[in-house]
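Repro case for the chain-ordering regression, as requested:
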Amino acid sequence: MKAAVIQFPGSNCDRDAVHAFDDVLGHPARLVWHKETSLGDAELVVLPGGFSFGDYLRCGAIARFSPIMAAVSEFARRGGVVIGICNGFQILCEAGLLPGALIRNECLEFRCRTVVLRVEDAGPCFNRGDLGDTLRIPVAHGEGNYRIDGDGLAALRRNGQILFRYASGGSAGDPARENPNGSIDDIAGIRNEQGNIFGMMPHPERAVESFHPSRDGIPVLKAVLRTAQDAARVKV
Amino acid sequence: MKVTVFVTPKKNVLDPQGAAVAHAMTSLGFKNLKSARMGKVIELEIDGVPGDEFNAAVDRICEDLLSNPVIEDYRWTLDEAGR
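-- result from build under test --
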């Protein structure tokens, strides 16, 4: 799978994402500058973490209007697989490609720690059978507090669109098992209804090496790759 | 013309910053506070003629960029003298 990692001014997890897909998983990944208007022969698009445009106005609000985003929207509309990580998740919500919005952490702190995620049943590739019950993956954000109205939340639950929840509750005193940002329903990651656009606040690309806090990012990125492979097969 | 845009969190959306400000005010002995909500003010200078077209253009940019309708409301005022 050929991955395009979009590079906005202020992205800072772009090279980590390339490293994870290219060096660790063996799928060619290249950086695509936000001023580009084409994704070339990309079969998978990654919107990486960081602080695009300094997080001015709202996180992701300005990146959403970068020239490349028209190509990303069109790619997604045709069923192409897109994953947004952290700031990438914020951009996808601002662009209306994923429902809801991400606001300031309830604690007002920037939270940088490894958290435990509970894997939810979100369909093919993203379920406990494929990924296990829990994953340990780092978060690093000040605005990861997921918000959506009641009807929207009901739809996410009904359609199995919730990928991961922060594994809070029943384990007081363990920061790794707390909801780090106050997200509604402990939501850490979601997908769109069609199942080709993914967004998550935790950083799987920072959990792929033996010196990382875990290597639990590998199965997550592999699940994205498998979804992209399935999408490519359908197209053929 | 000077347009001042006020962007505020929707009433039913959690406002962690407003809650922190309210907490600080209460701590400082401000007894009668019921709530504090925090948003932003954006000042624009725009060439144009007041009217439906102008209003529609300002509304459009407020909806597309300056606010996120999922979590925020906006309103704006016009100062034709541009003071």
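Ordering looks correct now. Chain B has a mean pLDDT of 94.
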